[in-house]
């Protein structure tokens, strides 16, 4: 890979502040020779003793990664003369991905809660038409502010109309899809999105997603929810709701004969196959007496220019450019080989990162 693209998300979108950077340039004499101060005695008192450091200087150990070394051999927790080989069983593929766990740098101090999670070991819910896997605070207890879902829909397949108490932010990884939204006033919104594009559905807003076939067989996308306890298995589904409402109540509510509901599903569909839409968004968008939604729920971030910097590029989208996205902001960062995202931190917002 020639570069490392990643998404860094924060749970605040209004004029999201940049992370505070730290850059130090030091020049000193040799660390092994402390500077000695001397003074001419002005009385019978002898000269003051030379100062000495109160603790050892920081190590000059470069702490090179064992990543390359582990790819061609058996990972072992050996650092120079320290450590020893493993006599028991090993999970070599996983150890090769986590060299800093196996042979931690000398700068490590104390214990830190787990801060990363591979989607590859998340439980995958597979159905006719697609699949989804997730990461929430059950996997990473530290991640209380955001949860993530990686979902795939085949062409035509639909993630059925649903809603939840958390806001949903979406990023198209590959392919294309059509999103459908009905806001709290009954206004409709329909749009097609492509790789690098975004959507945002505020909490409680019903929405659905359908895979298209104009660029690939459906789509794959990343969802980020602004609550670490979110579960993709606990959303409020339209089919599940209707399956638990007596048909005579449905008939009276919609002012039709009860037989109109003879073929509704007896349980939730969640993801299900369907035909690929043939109409354009303009033709397919339903006409509502309430009109169209005022704010767009999608943003063509793929067409927004990135800012090139030394070591890579960055593209930031927050509520200043994507007005409806009030709880989540994103920085799409590309780091070239040898580049570094400089040391920084966020005083008030957490960060959730996904590597592409």
From TrEMBL:
Signal sequence, start to end: 1-15
Cofactor binding summary note: Binds 2 manganese ions per subunit.
A single GO BP: oxalate metabolic process
Cofactor: Mn(2+)
Record keyword Magnesium present: no
Domain Cupin type-1: 127-262
SMART domains: Cupin_1 (SM00835)
Record Gene3D superfamilies: Jelly Rolls
Gene Ontology terms, MF aspect: metal ion binding; oxalate decarboxylase activity
InterPro entries in the cross-refs: Bicupin_oxalate_deCO2ase/Oxase (IPR017774), Cupin_1 (IPR006045), GPI/OXD (IPR051610), RmlC-like_jellyroll (IPR014710), RmlC_Cupin_sf (IPR011051)
Binding site for Mn(2+) 1: 162, 164, 168, 207
Protein residues bound to Mn(2+) 2: 344, 346, 351
Top-level enzyme category: lyase
Pfam families recorded: Cupin_1 (PF00190)
EC annotation from Swiss-Prot or TrEMBL: 4.1.1.2
Keywords, in A-Z order: Lyase, Manganese, Metal-binding, Signal
Annotated protein name in UniProt: Oxalate decarboxylase
Organism: Thanatephorus cucumeris (strain AG1-IB / isolate 7/3/14)
Originating gene: oxdC3
């Amino acid at each position: 890979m020639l570069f490392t693209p990643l998404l860094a998300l924060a749970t605040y979108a209004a004029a999201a502040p940049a992370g505070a950077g730290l850059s130090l340039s030091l020049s000193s004499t040799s660390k092994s020779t402390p500077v000695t101060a001397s003074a001419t005695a002005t009385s019978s008192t002898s000269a003051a003793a030379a100062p000495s450091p109160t603790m050892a200087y920081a190590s000059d150990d470069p702490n090179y990664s064992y990543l390359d070394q582990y790819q061609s051999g058996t990972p072992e927790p050996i650092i120079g003369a320290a450590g020893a080989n493993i006599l028991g069983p090993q999970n070599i593929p996983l150890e090769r991905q986590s060299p800093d766990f196996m042979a931690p740098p000398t700068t490590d101090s104390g214990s830190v809660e787990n801060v990363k999670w591979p989607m590859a070991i998340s439980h995958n819910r597979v159905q006719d038409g697609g699949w989804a896997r997730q990461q929430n605070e059950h996997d990473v207890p530290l991640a209380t502010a955001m949860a993530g879902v990686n979902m795939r829909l085949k062409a035509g397949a639909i993630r059925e109309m649903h809603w939840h108490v958390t806001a949903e932010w979406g990023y198209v990884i590959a392919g294309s899809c059509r999103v459908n939204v009905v806001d709290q006033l009954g206004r409709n919104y329909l749009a097609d999105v492509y790789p690098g594009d975004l959507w945002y559905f505020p909490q409680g807003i019903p929405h659905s997603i359908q895979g298209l076939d104009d660029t690939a067989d459906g789509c794959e996308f990343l969802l980020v929810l602004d609550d670490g306890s979110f579960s993709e298995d606990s959303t409020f589904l339209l089919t599940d709701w209707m399956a638990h409402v007596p048909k005579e109540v449905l008939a009276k509510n919609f002012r039709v004969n009860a037989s109109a509901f003879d073929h509704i599903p007896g349980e939730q569909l969640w993801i299900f196959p369907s035909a690929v839409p043939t109409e354009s968004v303009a033709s397919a968008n339903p006409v509502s007496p309430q009109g169209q939604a005022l704010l767009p729920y999608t943003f063509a971030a793929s067409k927004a220019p990135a800012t090139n910097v030394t070591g890579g590029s960055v593209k930031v989208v927050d509520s200043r450019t994507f007005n409806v996205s009030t709880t989540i902001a994103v920085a799409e960062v590309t780091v070239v080989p040898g580049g570094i995202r400089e040391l920084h931190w966020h005083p008030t917002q957490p960060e959730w990162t996904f590597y592409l």
